[in-house]
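Workshop exercise sheet. Pairs work together: one partner reads the sequence aloud, the other fills in the structure field after running the prediction. Swap roles for the next sheet.
Pair: D.N. / O.F.
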Amino acid sequence: MTETTARPALDLSPAPAAAPMARMVAAQAGMELRIMLRNGEQLLLTMVIPVLLLAGFSTVDVVELGDGPRVDFLTPGILALAVLSTAFTGQAIGTGFERRYGVLKRLGATPLSRFGLLAAKTLAVLAVEAIQIAVLSAVAFALGWNPHGGPVAFAYAVLLVLLGTAAFSSLALLMAGTLRAEATLAAANLVYVVMLGLGGVIFATDRFPGAVRTAVEALPITALAGGLRSVLADGAAPSLLPVLVLAVWAAVGAALAARFFRWE
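Structure field:
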């Protein structure tokens, strides 16, 4: 006779637990990205307007842009504008209305932590920016863009974009977490228009009077556009000044957002 060995009983009792943080963040980032890409107004702000500005001012001699191909001067500034539109304007408006309608409050009751929610929003913003940069670069190359610099310039440009994203995102969360949604909508669009006109996106900042130019050069959009233009259009060596300006804005914005942001 063969002797049978008793097997332990299989435990089928439920064991509920939250998914790993990385999986929750990835899922939330995917949802944030889909929402951003499905929003017609957001698409107009982040994709259509920058492309129209790049194509229009590159082909039509409306303003004086100095020597050299117009597209070489414009492309770095339009790339900076694209970062501003996604990381600041779009995120401020979207987060403001999420806060008003109680979306943030409900998400706060889920296993996804507040840090995880902010990480997911940041990943979604970076994904949209990658799409923007790819589209704008393709349009610029079609218009004859000839960027200068090699791997060092490329690495410097990536660093500036990441710092610009951090600075604009922190300012967007500060605005969205302290103002009413309607006020955020108006203020974010106003800042977008002002930055477009004064931030060195299309017009060179050296045309402004001395005091105005000093104030304008301290803006994050000016640091981002100027830093990108110095290496991509002028072929200059990377400078620490734009990096420092963006880093200071990011640090101050993050500290203020952490202090004053209201989730309800």
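Discussion prompt: The longest helix spans residues 70-100. What would you look at next?
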